[in-house]
Design brief:
The complex is a heterodimer of chains A (about 600) and B (about 160). By secondary structure, chain A is α+β, with helices and mostly antiparallel strands. In chain A, about 40% of the residues lie in helices and about 15% in strands. By secondary structure, chain B is an alpha+beta fold. Chain B has a single domain (about 1-160), classed as Alpha-Beta Plaits. At the A-B interface, helix 4, helix 7, strand 13 and strand 15 of A face helix 1 of B. Chain A: Belongs to the AOR/FOR family.
């Protein structure tokens, strides 16, 4: 019996037969993997063959919350989508904010397991524990924002929604799963898996409460952690003021913002697309996800020009970079419009923008024949960026269909896979490893392909004084530490941004007070390391090897041509060996038996 | 007398106030048991917090047949006396603001009581969309704010930027 934090039940949904089953949450797994990303990954490891076609009915999707979801723990409303991802076949976990996670818990379920495939498009309506399969033929083809609104109108105005857009329906490899119409589980193509099951969305509404094991201890932990964040200059300064886009000028000033498909890493006119400019030009108000005191979310509108009157959420910094700098585009209104389109079609902004950039380089270098492009694809052409996203979302022609598969498959199609700025086929985000060494190790070793939020080394390399961004020493240790911390943090349902102020001990305290499980900072990190190794084991069984732990040749070989990091390349090998050894893995990137035993993962090895 | 001031323009929609309220009042996190409620307009991402205004002429109290809702002349609040409530729910109908709520089971009336002068919702509202201030200070700060705007315009007029 668990005293608090969890609702204790998992809903298993068989989409083939349209039947549902309630299962008990396993206390031993809750203790070993927390919930969310960790627990969900364990389910996938047990129930899904790592070699299965990600878009086959045999693949499963876990929609998971953590024990802190639905409480006042700071920024604790995350929901996670865990599956075998189609973009690269790795264990995919992508999380989102909004209100879906806490509301899912109030229906009485910690998680939903989706399996099989419906013969017709459906959506699920989970109303106070009662589950209905509803016809979604009229929603198929509808944009994300339209589906969000229609599903709420058809169910309950105060319900919360999850939905895929046309990109997910058409199984784009870079399709996301959206929540509340504008919050994204963006990465790894999770939307395509949901689309492959003919599931348009899930609507939840519940009336149950979330209890915690120790009322007073929890109240005090909440007070203390909120106070820490209130005093933190990032969480209470830069982020609420300028959103995540506060980083445009910061990262560009280090010469580490990839520009024009990473042919450069410095954009002289970066301020045109900065968070500061976004604030004066487009910001309407801040938005906070469930129980968030940071409220970095941007509610924006385009106030002039050809997109005047368009409005929505974002853009985030990564989206500004991918749809802006990466495409040589410094028209902020066009970036914002392209970002809205990504949200409406249900496309991952990072991968989408980077794919357009890749197409532009292929086009400019003549590798993509002009006849294959519906319009000239020149770096810096704002219209080309917006229209490419539209083509990718609609998939009405070969160009759109090709781009919708992501940059790796696009570049491979034209015989130049090296021009895809990706690791394990997933596009890397807005930090150039040539100018920030540690993040390259994170991209190379991330269990879901290139990613910044598995172990956000930028916090240590740029945002707080500590490590020299150009040094290699110490980067393996900080990468491992942050990867383990984040795996545990994600599993509680807490937002990564809390770690600008909170430490493992603070998070362990919240988790422990909520659940009644004994947990200190050491144990919290050990759980994170267990989750990391579990993900790794899945990937190895799926066929990935140590050879996949690398970076695009451009990052390893081509010096940055201009700006503050001019002349730099990334020497990954200076960190990789040390990283493997700190992880207790062999030189082949395979966990040793001893480490797996130490982590209690013998049954999965 | 202090009042809860709601400023929708500042609200970020995080709903922490609702979780904090229910936790304070029932020991469980359940927004349906919260006295304060944030309405989200998804189409334009606008967030509007609502809570009992502690009316000088409380319709809820006027329709209550058992005097379970009464205006407290000492505190200025409209008190809810649970033991007198017969559950007729007429107060919900009468309140022009929808601020008399019913709990998650649809059984018990719940109503804001300012947490005896230390509202739990205010403590988690980082955006200061919910504040707890002396009523005369609400007027003063409103006038101060408007005056600041005039002050800025006047300063620019002096520079000739905005004649």
């Amino acid at each position: 019996m668990i005293d608090g934090g969890y609702q204790g039940k998992i809903l298993r949904v068989n989409l083939t037969d349209h039947v549902v089953k309630e299962e008990a949450l396993r206390e031993d797994w809750a203790k070993r993997y927390i919930g969310g990303r960790g627990y969900g990954t364990r389910i996938i490891c047990d129930e899904v063959d790592p070699k299965v076609d990600p878009l086959a009915p045999e693949n499963k999707v876990v929609i998971a919350t953590g024990p802190l979801d639905g409480t006042t723990a700071p920024s604790s409303g995350r929901v996670m989508v865990i599956t075998k991802g189609p973009l690269n076949g790795t264990i995919a976990c992508s999380n989102a904010g909004g209100y879906f996670g806490p509301m899912l818990k109030r229906t009485g379920y910690d998680m939903i397991i989706l399996e099989g495939k419906s013969s017709e498009p459906v959506y699920l309506w989970i109303n106070k524990g009662k589950v209905e399969f509803r016809d979604a033929k009229h929603l198929w083809g509808k944009l994300v924002n339209e589906s969000d609104q229609l599903m709420r109108e058809e169910t309950h105005l105060e319900a919360e929604t999850m939905e895929i857009g046309p990109a997910g329906e058409k199984m784009s490899m870079i399709a996301n799963v959206m929540f509340n119409g504008h919050r994204a589980s963006g990465r790894t193509g999770v939307g395509a898996v949901v689309g492959s099951k003919n599931l348009k969305g899930i609507v939840v509404r519940g009336n149950l409460g979330v209890t915690v094991a120790d009322h007073d201890k929890f109240a005090e932990a909440v007070r203390a952690t909120r106070e820490i964040l209130a005093q933190n200059p990032v969480a209470s300064g830069g982020l609420p003021l300028y959103g995540t886009a506060v980083l445009v000028n910061i990262i560009n000033s280090t010469g580490s913002m990839p520009v024009r498909n990473a042919q450069d890493a410095y954009l002289p006119e970066a301020d045109k697309i900065s968070g500061e400019t976004l604030r004066t030009r487009n910001l309407v108000r801040n938005e906070g996800c469930s129980d968030c005191s940071i409220a970095c979310g941007r509610v924006t509108a385009i106030k002039e020009g050809k997109y005047k009157g368009e409005h929505g959420g974002g853009p985030e910094w990564e989206s500004i970079w991918s749809l802006g700098a990466m495409c040589g585009n410094s028209d902020l209104d066009a970036v914002t419009m392209a970002n809205y389109l990504c949200d409406r079609y249900g496309l991952d902004t990072i991968s989408a923008g980077s794919t357009v950039a890749c197409a532009m380089e292929l086009y400019e270098k003549g590798y993509m024949p002009a006849k294959d492009a519906p319009f000239p694809l020149r770096f810096g052409d704002a219209d080309a960026v917006v229209e490419s996203i539209r083509a990718m979302g609609e998939q009405k022609d070969e160009f759109g269909r090709l781009l919708a598969q992501g940059s790796y498959r696009l570049a491979e199609h034209y015989g130049h896979p090296e021009l895809s700025m990706s690791v394990k086929k997933q596009e890397f985000p807005a930090y150039d490893p040539r100018g920030i060494k540690g993040i390259g190790l994170e991209y190379a070793t991330s269990n879901r392909g290139a990613c910044h939020v598995r172990g956000y080394t930028i916090a240590a390399e740029i945002l707080s004084p500590g490590l020299d961004r150009l040094a290699y020493e110490g980067k393996a240790a900080v990468t491992k530490f942050l990867q383990d911390l984040t795996a545990a943090l994600d599993s509680t349902g807490t937002c990564l941004f809390t770690t600008f102020g909170l430490q493992a001990k603070d998070l362990a305290q919240l988790y422990s007070a909520a659940t009644g499980f004994d947990c200190d900072d050491k144990e919290f990190l050990k759980i994170g390391e267990r989750i990391w190794n579990m993900e790794k084991l899945f990937n190895l069984k799926s066929g990935l090897t140590g050879k996949d732990d690398t970076l695009p040749p451009r990052i390893l070989n081509e010096p940055i041509p201009s700006g503050p990091s001019k002349g730099e390349i990334e020497e990954l090998d200076k960190m990789l060996g040390e990283y493997y050894s700190l992880r207790g893995w062999g030189k082949d990137s395979v966990p040793t038996k001893d480490r797996l035993k130490d982590l209690g993962l013998e049954d999965l090895s | 007398m202090k009042v809860l001031v709601l400023e929708p323009a500042k609200c970020t929609g995080c709903r922490a106030c609702m979780d904090a309220c229910s936790f304070e009042k029932s020991g469980v996190f359940n927004p349906l048991d919260s006295r304060v409620n944030v309405i989200t307009f998804h189409e334009d991402l606008m967030f509007v917090p609502t809570v009992c205004s502690q009316c000088e002429t409380p319709y809820c109290a006027q329709v209550c047949p058992t005097a379970a809702l009464v205006r407290n002349t000492t505190t200025g609040l409209v008190d809810f006396l649970k033991e007198k409530c017969i559950g007729c729910k007429q107060c919900i109908v009468a309140c022009p603001w929808g601020s008399i709520r019913i709990n998650h089971l649809g059984k018990e009336i719940i109503k804001c009581d300012h947490c005896s002068g230390d509202p739990a919702c205010v403590k988690v509202c980082k955006a200061e969309a919910l504040t707890y201030v002396e009523v005369e200070d609400v007027v003063a700060s409103k006038q101060q704010g408007v005056a600041q705007t005039y002050r800025r315009i006047a300063a620019e007029m002096v520079k000739g930027v905005n004649p």
